[in-house]
Amino acid sequence: MGLVNVISKPNLMKMAERHPASCVQADIWFRAAKSAGWRGLHEVRKDFPDADQVGNVLIFNIMGGSYRLIVRVSYMSQTIYVKALLNHKEYDRKEWMKWT
Questions:
Q1: With contact defined as beta carbons under 8 Å apart, do 56 and 74 qualify?
Q2: CA 57 to CA 38: how far, in whole Å?
Q3: How far lies 8's CA from each of 14, 15, 22, 30, 72, in Å?
Q4: Contacts of 8 by beta carbon, 8 Å cutoff, 6+ apart
Q5: Interior CA angle at 91 toward 50 and 89, to 5°?
Q6: What pLDDT, on the 0 to 100 scale, is given for residue 2?
Q7: Taking a C-beta distance cutoff of 8 angstroms, is the pair 79, 73 a contact?
Q8: Could you tell me which of 35, 36, 22 has the C-alpha nearest to residue 69?
Q9: What angle do CA 55, 23, 68 make, to 5 degrees?
Q10: pLDDT tens, 40-56?
Q11: pTM above 0.85, yes or no
Q12: Cα–Cα distance measured from residue 9 to residue 6, given in angstroms and rounded to the nearest whole number
């Protein structure tokens, strides 16, 4: 299976720099997502059992749930759009819901 287009690693790592403790885990997520080839939430959950679908976005727990990674996935085109990496306070504001 080919590589998935994750848009974009520099953007993800810039987000992670705002939350330095998340940098290593964000990179691990990126590597897993880039090579995954998911075709639906059922396949995502094989790699990330805690992943949740809310409308059009997937939410991943980073660092045991200390952070939330918000992405949009086009399974058909095998493209993942990184939208936000948030701590609990930021996540609870629900501004991420604009992407749902």
A1: no
A2: 14
A3: 10, 11, 16, 9, 12
A4: 82
A5: 120
A6: 55
A7: yes
A8: 22
A9: 25
A10: 999 999 999 999 999 99
A11: yes
A12: 7
**What is the bridge-based pairing of β-strands 67-74 and 57-62?**
antiparallel
From CA 38, how far away is CA 29, in angstroms rounded? 14
Residue with tokens 């991420």: 96
Q: What is the spatial distance between Cα 6 and Cα 70, in angstroms, rounded to a whole number?
A: 13
- Pull the structure tokens for residue 73: 């996935």
- Between the alpha carbon of residue 87 and those of residues 20, 60, 84, the distances in Å are 11, 12, 10
- Amino acid identity of residue 62, one-letter, is I
Q: Encoding tokens for residue 29?
A: 């997520």
Which domains are seen in the chain, by residue range?
A: 5-99 (3.30.2310.20)
DSSP secondary structure of 32-76 = HHHTT---SHHHHHHH-TT-EEETTEEEEEETTTTEEEEEEEETT
Per-residue pLDDT, averaged over 71-81, amounts to 92
Number of DSSP helices (H) and strands (E) in the chain, helices first:
4, 5
